[in-house]
Structures are given as structure tokens and as C-alpha cells.
Write a structure and sequence with these properties.
CATH class: Mainly Alpha
Distance between the termini: 42 Å
Largest sheet: 3 strands, mixed
Shape: globular
Structural class: mainly alpha
CATH architecture: Up-down Bundle
CATH superfamily: dinb family like domain
Number of domains: 1
Number of strands: 3
Strand order of the largest sheet: 1-2-3
Length: 169
């Protein structure tokens, strides 16, 4: 079995769980935030919708500069609605899955770098970028969003087993 085929079941499970959380975003709370220094529900949700794009970036480019010298910095697009977020997420997950499926083992061991302003933030093998910067990053922000949901009285979905909300606790 290739490395990409070994990663896909985990990718599919985590993206399905992420979609469950995104489906629960309250349409009227996209601008809600827990603290003035925190991001809004809409920003976190759109960030989750964008994270899968990093699979293609990591697999098909040697590096990405999120604030290229003389260029526009990477920005999360503002969400228009829950449906906008879900449509973007679905499109990006499908494209990421294609990129992962097509990646040969020799591509997954090649180094990839994240840059900011021309300076290297980190360099990792592409398989490690998929696990850390795509999967773990999505899991982190999904948990972040689950806290926001709970604080707004929105039932948190079951992810790795029943949630307290789905067990009636």
C-alpha cells in the first residue's frame, strides 16, 4: 500500500467529522467571538474550509509564502453564509483528496517549506505536512469551533463516539 493510500482513510474520517461540525454553525452567529482578541465563528469555519487546500499546495509546490515580499498576503475569505462555508469545504476536500490520491511515495518524502515574507517558518517532508498542517491543524480548529458551538448553546456532534449533547447529558 502506498503512503497516500494509507493517509486517505484518516483524511476521509477527519474531513467527515469536520463537516459535521461545520453543518452546525448558527447562521446568525458568524460574527460572534468569545473575546475581542479571538476570531469569529465565521472566520474559524472558513479557515477550516480552507485548510484542505494546503494538501494540494504541499504536494504540488515546493513551498508557499503566506506573505510574499511585494505580494498580497494570504487571507481567509470572509464567509457569506453557512452554505458558502460548506460549499467551499466540500470543493476543497474533493480537490485535496485527488491530490493525495495521486501523490507517489517519492513525492511524499520530498521537503516542503512554509515561508512568510521570504523567511522559512518550517520545512518538513510532504507526508508530515499532510498529517500536521492539514489533518492536525483541522482537528485543532474543529475543537476550537466545538467550544464556540457549546458556548452558543449549539449541540456538539459526535466525532469519535457520542458527544455529551447526543447522549442527553
Amino acid at each position: 500500500m502506498s503512503q497516500s493510500q494509507a493517509i486517505l482513510p484518516e483524511f476521509d474520517q477527519e474531513m467527515a467529522n469536520t463537516r459535521k461540525v461545520l453543518e452546525r454553525i448558527p447562521e446568525d452567529k458568524l460574527d460572534w467571538k468569545v473575546h475581542e482578541k479571538s476570531n469569529t465563528i465565521g472566520w474559524v469555519a472558513m479557515h477550516l474550509a480552507e485548510i484542505p487546500t494546503w494538501a494540494d499546495l504541499a504536494l504540488n509546490h515546493d513551498s508557499v509564502d503566506v506573505a510574499p515580499p511585494g505580494g498580497e498576503p494570504y487571507r481567509i475569505p470572509p464567509p457569506q453564509s453557512r452554505q458558502d462555508i460548506l460549499a467551499r469545504f466540500d470543493k476543497n476536500v474533493a480537490a485535496a483528496r485527488v491530490a493525495i490520491s495521486a501523490a507517489p511515495d517519492e513525492q511524499l518524502v520530498k521537503p516542503w517549506s512554509l515561508l512568510k515574507g521570504g523567511e522559512t517558518i518550517f520545512t518538513l517532508p510532504r507526508a508530515a505536512v499532510l498529517r500536521s498542517f492539514v489533518l492536525n491543524h483541522a482537528i485543532h480548529h474543529r475543537a476550537h469551533l466545538c467550544v464556540y458551538l457549546r458556548l452558543n448553546g449549539v449541540p456538539v456532534p459526535a466525532l469519535y463516539g457520542p458527544s455529551a449533547d447526543e447522549q442527553g447529558m
